[in-house]
Amino acid sequence: MKLTLKVVNAAGAVLSQASCDDEVFLVYRSEYAEGDRLVVETAESGHIDLSLDAGMPPARVFMAGTEFSLPTPVGLTRMTYPPQAFVGNLHRISARRVEPNDVSIRRNLAFNPFDHHDNTTLFPHAKANVETRGEAVFAARNAIDGEKANTDHGFWPYTSWGINQDPAAALTLAFGRPVRIDQVRLYLRADFPHDAWWNEASMTFSDGHMLTVPLVKSGVAQTFAMPPRTVEWVRLHELKKADDPSPFPALTQLEVWGGEVP
Length: 262
Fold this sequence. Notes:
The protein is an all-beta fold. The chain is 2% helix and 47% strand. The chain contains one helix and 17 strands. It has one helix at 100-103; strands spanning 2-8, 14-21, 23-28, 37-42, 46-51, 59-63, 67-71, 91-97, 107-108, 122-123, 125-128, 161-162, 171-188, 198-205, 210-214, 222-241, 250-260. Strands 9, 11, 12, 13, 14, 15, 16 and 17 form an eight-stranded antiparallel beta sheet that branches. The chain is globular. The mean pLDDT is 97.
């Protein structure tokens, strides 16, 4: 699989580029400017191990299309990323095709720290019908960024999905292809007493199955096993707030464990 990495500016000009078969590295020796984008191109859809900055964890992701673009973070969006990421004048970006034998291992299929609102090709991808005040630190993508610190809120590493006190709030996690799953883990935000919590939540899967689970006031992983099922997405909804004075329940992390469909 041919892989290409680019740094592109706001005008669409390519500032730096590297291409190679199966594994590629790009070293960019300049500071990012507002409007710059990191672009990943693949000759075909498939799994890649992707690292878009040395200050962020790499991720095994699925390219459903052949191009993905990540705007370099600026302004308030910057608060959702590690302070050491995307800064300075020396950046290393890499991508590697995942061999078929390596794809099959059981893992958290919901992890993608490079997700963002306009992403349509790099999976998993999270979206929600509501996000608190439209602020980046409460966006749906935060629920799959891998950050589990949950005793504060409003900045990295305490990113979360905030529901703006909306009882109809729902988050949909799409995998971009059929996957085989057997377990879900929820990490509630636990900035008590600022935060409230949910004592019940429902999950509907693309195969029509619905699972309703009890939740408790805790910041640790709350794990729910299920018989293996093949799905393309899961929707978290029907979030029942506990009887607590705080109006602010939130989700720090959603994990969905399983593997590829054989």
